[in-house]
Amino acid sequence: MSLLGGINDPRDLDALSPAQLETLAGEIRAFLIAEVSKTGGHLGPNLGVVETTIAIHKVFDSPRDAIVFDTGHQSYVHKLLTGRQDFSGLRQKGGLAGYPQRSESPHDVVESSHASSSLSWADGISRAFEMTGQNDRHVVAVVGDGALTGGMTWEALNNISDDNSRNLVIIVNDNGRSYAPTIGGMARYLNTVRTKKGYHDLHQSSRKLFDRLGAPARALYRGARGGLHGFLSRVTNNSSLYANLDIKYLGPVDGHDLGAMIEALQQAKQYGAPVIVHAITEKGRGYQPALTDVADQFHAVGQIDPETGEPISAPSGAPSWTGVFADEMVRQAEQDETIVGITAAMLRPTGLHKFAERFPTRVFDVGIAEQHAVTSAAGLAFGGLHPVVALYATFVNRAFDQVLMDVGLHQAGVTFVLDRAGVTGPDGASHHGMWDLAILQVVPRIRLSAPRDAERLREELAEAVRVTDAPTVVRFPKGNVGPDIPAIRRTVDGVDVLREDAQKDVLIVAVGPMAELSLEVAELLEAQGIGSTVVDPRWVVPVPWSIIELSDAHRIVVTIEDGVRVGGIGTRIRQDLREAGVDTAVTELGLPDEFLEHASRSEILQRVGLTPEQIAEDLVAQVRGNKIPIARPLSDAGHAAAYPSLKNSDTDTLHRLVR
Fold first, then answer.
1. Coiled-coil segments, which residues (predicted)?
2. Cβ atoms 611, 521 nearer than 8 A
């Protein structure tokens, strides 16, 4: 029987000798390569924290001691050591989550996979333990060097250093990368540490160097552009930037030397005050295909051949949404030298890498710092440039105040490109990009677009970067783009009519990628003798006037979006219809206001009722029971009086673009 098979609880590690722990580490790496290659998942990060995670569970007593992982994508080893060794359904419906999840185990504390929050969690938990007399409990926060580029980390450290009586251990997993190589002042500092002769000697014999350090070395916390450079130790001998902070520092320690890591954590545990353990690790450790992957060292993979690391499934002939954006961004920048790109540690995942290759001086990767990215973009716009801020939709939530007050209030011409919008699938609750439409539409003068296909993505990006007096948004889902969906006509204000039956029963307003589903709904309605019109607004906020007119000519309006239904585009259309004096019934279809589980996109949409069959069945029942008469068309003369919320200044630019 393997050693791993005998681990059902972290305390099972107590019976293993140092040699057996080394054997266990090898078994875990082999398990991860074999199992994650079948399902896909975060392989590289977990291969890099095998020894570190074993050392944590050897020294600390989870769940009594709280272990907090920053982002949590590196928690697979933690799951294995806490009794969760069935990886057959990893990131699939009913299987293990790809991140910590409280419903799975009492050993999981923080579920959110948004970076840079772990130290704030650790600060709060350790304060609570201290205030409630639980002084024998420890808090361990595992944070990557990439996450240390986030501002929340420094806010937390400022408060942690204010109270040195708590049992708090911060393990910095320093592999020089988040998704891609860590950038900024922190990266330069850590590169210096790694290339010093002292570190080279440590890497060759980390235990010997650790023994020379003796008791925990006094360290002054240092800051340099929001990175680990913040810490002064006797090893690095750099001058102090923030000498007023006093957090004990151990390291650097070879994060793959089990003995050294265990000893470092034992000393940190016994110290009785906040301690930083600086562990140098290697992402993708022990798996050559990951180590030779220059892009991201197998940060996240699909199904792969475990021997070669090559994808198993043949690549689809259809381009990805990200790929279409990447190419169009370069094309737009070739035509307009004021366009610059900004991202937050996700140059390749958001598609800006092609732009960076073509225009290396016009792209800024600010690290995991979305708030800074957005306000910096406002400054770039003030200086005469047009910034395109490329983020995952779920991460724009982190910078809403900056979108509202720095970009929106100042009428800055900034374009936000939100990748992975809507239901993203296997990464679970904190990665679904389902809140952007509801959150962002409250920003005055903002203009939101949702392309339905590749051609519309190109069109709407081109239109967005020509708006200079307000924020614009282009949002699209994860995955491959389907075939282009042609319009039978386009209204003067840019609404595409995709289908138009003579019988005006139902107006279906399709938001972006829901257009294909909407056309399928129309086909099912036709089979029941119900006529429909299907439209794609292209720009969903502000609501185009032609949507108001078309709504007035139909018995029922149904909006279909892949964002949260509460406060979504359907709600906005309902409100604008009432303001215009149009009383057509509106059915708002979208995602429920709940945290959606990890499953495939199709499985989730089916569960929440967003399938053609379910929608058509409900609409048939509504139409056949609906006694509301068709309203008379609203005259153009009544436009301004009945619909004051749409000021000419808000729509003129878009009208000009589509004429």
1. none
2. no
Strand partners, 564: 591
Give the pLDDT confidence of 532-565 residue by residue, as tens digits. Answer: 999 999 999 999 999 999 999 999 999 999 999 9
- Does the residue 311 lie in any domain? no
Annotated binding residues for Mg(2+): 145, 175
- The answer on 469 and 496 residing in a single domain is no
* Same domain? 129 vs 224: yes
Q: Which residues contact 264 (CB under 8 A, 6 or more apart)?
A: 55, 210, 250, 251, 253, 277, 279
Question: Is 521 found in the same domain as 451?
Answer: no
Question: Domain for residue 484, yes or no?
Answer: no
- What are residue 297's phi and psi, to 5 degrees? 50, 45
Residue 482 lies in a domain: no
State pLDDT tens for residues 604-628: 999 999 999 999 999 999 998 854 4
The reported pLDDT for the residue numbered 307 is 84
Mutual orientation of helices 569-579 and 545-552 as an angle, nearest 10°?
A: 70
Report, as residue numbers or ranges, the catalytic residues: 283, 370, 398
Query: Hey, what are 430's tokens?
Result: 């904190």
Q: What is the pTM of this model?
A: 0.82
Domain of 501 in residue numbering reads as 489-658
In a domain, 483, yes or no: no
Going by C-alpha positions, the residue among 176, 171, 165 that lies closest to residue 199 is 176
Domain boundary among 453, 475, 497: 475
Q: Are residue 507 and residue 649 in the same domain, yes or no? A: yes
User: Which residues are annotated binding-site positions for thiamine diphosphate?
Assistant: 73, 113-115, 146-147, 175, 287, 370
480: CB partners within 8 A, 6+ apart:
316, 318, 319, 320, 321
Q: Of 443, 475, 507, which one is at a domain's C-terminal end?
A: 475
Rounded Cα gap, residues 75 and 28, in angstroms:
13
Q: What per-residue confidence (pLDDT) applies to 205?
A: 42
